[in-house]
Write a structure and sequence with these properties.
Number of strands of chain A: 10
Oligomer: homodimer
CATH superfamily of the largest domain in chain A: Pseudouridine synthase I, catalytic domain, C-terminal subdomain
Subunit structure (chains A, B): Homodimer.
Largest interface: A-B, 16 and 16 residues
CATH architecture of the largest domain in chain A: 2-Layer Sandwich
Function (chains A, B): Formation of pseudouridine at positions 38, 39 and 40 in the anticodon stem and loop of transfer RNAs.
Strand content of chain A: 25-35%
Number of helices of chain A: 5
Helix content of chain A: 10-25%
Radius of gyration of chain A: 19 Å
Domain Pseudouridine synthase I TruA alpha/beta (chains A, B): 8-105, 144-246
Shape of chain A: globular
Number of domains of chain A: 2
Enzyme class (chains A, B): isomerase
Binding site for substrate (chains A, B): 111
Chain lengths: 246, 246
């Protein structure tokens, strides 16, 4: 058996998220369908670095699978792309050791949340950015973001409907900066993230940027460990899983 | 009766073009549906600067309509936007004289064709750009474009299935330039355009940029007046009706 690691982008708009769900169009299902066809009907399962929610995009999601087919490593991307729908694109395929595991071996993940920060909406970016018409105080947001960096119990940023026990994660970096094209981008890099954690952090930073919440409240919100103290979850379509590092 | 002029953007991806067709989702139909609802079921028709094909986008399409409702001018945009689907957005609404006509009074139209010019595709721009993986010779394209500028019979750039008699139009400007974000943009400004004219010009410029056709052939193609001599029609999704000037 050969183990293949693939780096994949997808536009989350038309998917019910990453993970297979009965009767729904999901990223995993589309990829497994194509792989199974390539293996003449023998079911092939893929293992990703983690799931993404409905509407969330990926530029550099990673998954692995095993195969008995004898295809050169870079050919896998080409073969898959020729059969995948046009909202999924494999950037790269490479042989990895039997030991490699796309979920267990993750060292860092980077997410980016794109905000369209101008008075007028842009319908051409409506599925990739969250529109914020009012001005944001980026200095306040960056001040608050500094309190998130580090190793903490992030229960305050975890959606209620999860059964993960250990809520300690490490955030290595958060920055909020103006891009060109009227966008403001929140970059967040961490060891891993709880369910909806990035979107809840984004929602809380937005309240701080709009002066609905003081930036020095962030440390207390984390320490309190109560989801109720953080702000509303930002919508999924502004979020992109940017990169996974092993 | 009050005459209202509206400037409208739409994402052409999910429409069967601008113009009403029985049983199809079109831009005109969606806007007229909302206006008719606002007028308590009395049919309201809109008149645009011209139609756009299925998949073609608009940033600054213009239409007019007449109303007996007593609503302040800038309120029309807000009222319409609150009821329109999220792939249509009215930028501006203004009162105009009874004499104004969105089609007959057009002085200039600007179209832009967006090419993604890099080896890798970008699935997040797949519905707004045409992907061209090989390098383009912009100098050759600009040289050929200069021959298009002026007043000519443009039969060579007109789709066969049209019944327009007079095929003389004036092109004021064409330029092909690198934008940031790996895009190359073809800007074309003219008095008006024949059916699929911009897309056929784009296809011909692409063949020149790829050295499949010599740039000095352009003048002869126009003079010959034969659609067969021009290149294939570029796909609709790279094209945006940028601006209409009155």
């Amino acid at each position: 058996m050969t183990k293949i690691k693939c780096t994949v982008a997808y536009d989350g708009t038309q998917f019910h998220g990453y993970q297979v769900q009965p009767g729904k169009r999901t990223v995993q299902r589309e990829i497994e369908k194509v792989l199974t066809r390539m293996h003449h009907g023998r079911t092939v399962k893929i293992v990703a670095s983690g799931r993404t929610d409905a509407g969330v995009h990926a530029l550099g999601q990673v998954f692995h699978f095993e195969t008995m087919l004898n295809i050169p490593e870079e050919r896998w991307a080409m073969a898959l792309n020729s059969m995948l729908p046009d909202d999924i694109h494999i950037w790269r395929s490479e042989f990895v050791s039997d030991q490699f595991h796309a979920r267990y071996d993750v060292k860092k993940k980077e997410y980016r949340y794109r905000l369209l920060t101008r008075p007028e909406p842009d319908l051409f970016r409506r599925t990739y950015t969250m529109h914020v018409a009012q001005p944001l105080d980026l200095a306040a947001m960056n001040q608050a973001a500094a309190a998130v960096v580090g190793t903490h119990d992030f229960s305050c940023f975890c959606a209620a409907n999860t059964n993960v026990k250990d809520k300690v994660r490490t955030v290595y970096h958060i920055s909020i900066s103006k891009a060109d094209n009227d966008e403001t981008v929140i970059r967040i890099i961490g060891s891993g993230f709880l369910y909806q954690m990035v979107r809840i952090i984004t929602g809380t930073l937005l309240d701080i940027g709009m002066h609905k919440l003081e930036p020095d409240r962030m440390a207390g919100i984390i320490e309190g460990g109560d989801r109720q103290n953080a702000s509303a979850t930002a919508p999924p379509h502004g979020l992109t899983l940017w990169q996974v590092t092993y």
